[in-house]
Write a structure and sequence with these properties.
By secondary structure, the protein is an alpha+beta fold. The chain is built from 3 helices and 10 strands; from the N terminus they run H-E-E-H-E-E-E-E-E-H-E-E-E. Strands 3, 4, 5, 6, 7, 8, 9 and 10 form an 8-stranded antiparallel β-sheet that branches. Strands 1-2 form a two-stranded antiparallel ribbon. The longest helix is centred in the N-terminal third of the chain and has 14 residues, at 2-15.
């Protein structure tokens, strides 16, 4: 296993581009090492420079909200950060992937999570994130509820699915795995990280 990780890090190191700017960043294994005062990611935290648009779909894999909320987080991390004031749905079996899922709705915070349930380990991890008003969390590129459609296009240009996007939704990546910005009157009214495909 260690050999695989080392090989992956070496491959990632040589396949990444170095950008010569004041806010130079080097992407290694979904983590960002910066040469300025930005926070360096540790463990599950990934920091992306808010001043630069996404230009690589690999960066979307580490999309975080307000520096900590992202796919794959454990139930324990969610409870530590958001508390237990949520409405828990019942576990439902998905015929698509054979997994069990459960909704956790923090209605007062405007945060809704879909947790994947690992039956063997009784563990739950974040499989989907949905933000609505009054949530004020921001994406890794500074987009939040209330941001303009223009801001979304400026920050995520190069990764927008033109086929799947329209005046009501901007799809970053694809409908199977990506970031989705719901729009009304050219303003972001919802943010989903996960999948829109059934």
């Amino acid at each position: 296993m260690k050999i695989r990780v080392i090989l992956f890090l070496i491959f990632s190191f040589f396949s990444c581009k170095e950008v010569q700017k004041e806010n130079e960043e080097l992407i290694i294994n979904k983590e960002f090492v910066t040469d300025n005062d930005n926070k360096i990611s540790k463990g599950s935290d990934v920091v992306i420079n808010n001043d630069r648009p996404v230009n690589n779909l690999n960066q979307l894999e580490g999309e975080t909200l307000s520096g900590w909320l992202k796919l794959g987080l454990s139930e324990k991390k969610i409870l530590n950060e958001l508390g237990d004031g949520f409405i828990m749905g019942k576990q439902e079996y998905s015929q698509v992937d054979g997994e069990y899922y459960q909704s956790w709705d923090y209605e007062e915070k405007g945060i809704s999570l879909v947790m994947r349930v690992d039956a063997q380990e009784s563990a739950k991890i974040v499989a989907e994130i949905k933000l609505t008003y009054p949530c004020n969390m921001t994406t890794s590129h500074g987009i939040r509820i209330g941001s303009s459609e223009e801001e979304v296009y400026n920050q995520y240009k190069g990764n927008i699915s033109k086929e799947d996007s329209n005046k009501e939704i901007v799809v970053i990546g694809n409908i199977y795995e990506g970031v989705f910005f719901m729009l009304k009157e050219s303003k972001v009214t919802g943010i989903i990280i996960g999948s829109m495909a059934e």
